Amino acid sequence: MDVNVPDARLMPATLAPPAAFSGRGRRFAWTLLLLAVAFGAVPAAIVGTGSSYLAQIAITTMIFVILSASLNHVTGTAGLLSIGHAAFYGIGAYAAALLSTKAGLPFMVTLPAAGLIAALFGFLVALPTMRLVSIYFAVATLGIGEMIYVVLLNWVDVTRGPMGIRGIPPISLFGWQADTLLSRYLAVAVIAVACVWVLHRLTHSYYGNALRALREDDQCADSMGINVERLKIESFVVATFFAGIAGALLAHTSAYIAPDNFRFMESILILAMVVVGGLGSLPGAVVGALFMIVLPEALRDIGDYRMIAVGATMFLSILLLPKGMLAEGTALGFVRRSFSRGWATIAGGMPVGWK
Amino acid sequence: MVFDVFFLQQVINGLSIGCVYALMAIGFTLIFGVLNVVNFAHGEVYTIGAFVGLMVITAMAPPLLAVVPLVLAVGAVSGVGLERIAFRPFRRFTDEASQKSRAMREATLLSSLAVSIVTREIMMHIFGGDMQGIPSGYLLQQPVAIGPIMVASGSLVIFATSAVMLGALQFLLYRTQTGLGIRAVSNNQLGARYVGINTDRTIVTTFAVGSMLGATAGILVGLYDGAISPHMGFAPGVKAFVAMVMGGLSSIPGAVACALLLGVSESIATEFLSSGWKDLITYSLLVITLVFFPQGLFGHGRERA
C-alpha cells in the first residue's frame, strides 16, 4: 500500500480544491498552468502594453506572495499567530538597502544577507518569546514589530528616518542588470517561485507534519517526543528569513524604501492574505496574496470608495468561507483518500470510510 | 531633585492618559472574557464616541453633563451593532470544537478588523481625513492650581469620570444578575449555557458595556486634546490592547493597573526622550513583562485545553 505522506499533499500554487485532487497529473497540470501564467502571460502583457503600472503590480504581487507564504509557514502550519511580520520584511529591506548603498555590495550578496540578517533578528526575538502561548505570543510579536518600526523611523543617522533611503541599485547578476520592466519582473518572479517551492518542500514533509502537530496541540506534541521549543524557533526563523528576502526584493525593485512600508497595518494585510486564502494552506496563501493585491487595484475606478469595498470584500470572504478560499485539507480526508487508493487494487474500487 | 513640580505634573498627565487607556482596556478585557477573541474594532467605537460628541456639541450646544449620557448611549448602540455584524455570524457553530478552533478564532479577529476598516473609511468620507477642532467653549484645558501643581481641568474630569465608571462597572459585575451572567460566560461559555444563561444576550450586553466605556474615553480625549480625526482610535486601541495582555487577558484590575503604568511611563519618557521614541518604552515594557511573566502580570496559569 502506497501511503506516501509527503507527496500526497497539495502542490504549491495549484488552484484545485482539496476534493478535486485525485491524481498527480491534475496537480501537475495546475502547477504548469500557473507557471505559464507567471512566466508566459504576465511577461507577455508587460511587454505588450509596456505599462510600468502593470509591471509594478506584478512585482508587488510576487513580493507579497513570498510574504504571505512565509507567514503561512509560521502562523498557518506551526500555529504561532505573528502580527509583526512586516517588521522583518522591513529589516530585510533596510539591510539590503544599506549594504548596497553604503557598502556597495552586489545583489548576489545583499539578497542572502538580507534574509540572514532578518533571520538573525527573528532568532533573537524567538528565543525569549517562544514560551508564550496563543495571544500572548501574538501581542509580543506586535510589540516587537512596533519597536522595530520606531527604530527604523527614529534612528536617523543610519536609516535616514522618515525620509527613507533612495537610489538603491536595481537587481543585477554577474554584470547583467535587470533595468527593464520585464527583466525586473522576471527576476522577482523566479526568486518568488523558488521561495514558494522551498516552503512547499518544508511544509509537505514529515518535518511539516511535526509543525502541524504542535499547531494542533503543543503539549501533546511535546509528550510524543517532538522538540516543541526548537521547532517553533526554527519555523519562526525560516519565516523571518523569507520575509527578509522579500524585503530585499522590494528595496532593489522600487529603489526607495521608507519606514511606512513596514507598519503594523502591513503585518495585518499579510495576515489577512493568509486567512482569506486559508490558514495552513500554501496554495491558499498564494491566492490570498493575489486577491488582496489585485482587488484594490482592480477597484481603482471607484476611487475613494476603494478601501470600503476592500473591507467589505474581506468581510464577506471571511463570512462565507471562514476556513479560507483554499482550505487546508483535513487530516481525516487525507487518510481516507490514501487508504482508498491502496484499497482500490485489492477490493475492486470500494472506497474506505463511513459516508 | 527628582520629584520636582514638573515631574509631578508629568505623572498626573500620564495618569489621565492611563485612565483613557484603562477605559478602553476594560472594553477589550470584557469582550475577550466572554468570547475569547480580540475585538479589533474597539478603536473605532472610541472614534465614533468622539465624533458623535462633536456633532452634538456643534449642533445643539448642550451642557457638558448632557453630552456624556448621549455618548454612552451611542457607544452602547455601536457595540451592539458591532456584535451583530462582526461577531454574531461567526457563532453559527456553538459546539466546543468550533469554539476552540484556530481558524474560527482568527476569522473573527479579521472580521472585526474588516468592520473597523469599513467604519473608518466611511467616517473619512463623512468628516474628511483632517483633524477637526472642538469648539473652544467645551475644551477642558483650563489650568487648575492644586498647591504648587498646575493641572489641566481635563485631567480632573477624566479622573472623575473614570472613577465613576469603574465604580459602576464593579457594581454591575458583582452586584447584579447581568454581571453574574457576564462572569459566568467568561468563566465557561458552554457551562453557562447549560445552567440556563442566555449567552447570546449576555454577549450583547458585554459588548454594549465595553463600548460605552470606549466611546466615553473617545469624547474625553477629544475634549482634552481639542482635536479629533477618524484615525484617532488606532494608537490608543493598540496601547489598550497591550495593557490588557500585560494585565493577564481576563483580569480587569490587571488591565487598569497596566494601562496606568503605560500612561505614566509614556508621559515620563517624553521628559528625557524625544517624542518619537516614546512608543519604544511602551513596547519594551510589554516585551519585558511577557518575558518574565508569560501569563501577564495578573493572569493565571495555562488552562489545559
Automatic annotation (TrEMBL), chain B:
GO CC annotation: plasma membrane
GO biological process: D-alanine transmembrane transport; L-alanine transport; L-isoleucine import across plasma membrane
Domain of life (superkingdom): Bacteria
Compartments (UniProt record): Cell membrane
Keyword terms of this UniProt record: Amino-acid transport, Cell inner membrane, Cell membrane, Membrane, Plasmid, Transmembrane, Transmembrane helix, Transport
Membrane topology of this protein: Multi-pass membrane protein
GO molecular function term, any single one: L-isoleucine transmembrane transporter activity
Transmembrane segments: 12-38, 45-61, 67-87, 107-128, 148-173, 203-224, 244-268, 280-298
InterPro entries tied to this protein: ABC_transp_permease (IPR001851), BCAA_transport_permease (IPR052157)
Similarity remark: Belongs to the binding-protein-dependent transport system permease family. LivHM subfamily.
Protein name: Branched-chain amino acid ABC transporter permease
Organism: Azospirillum brasilense
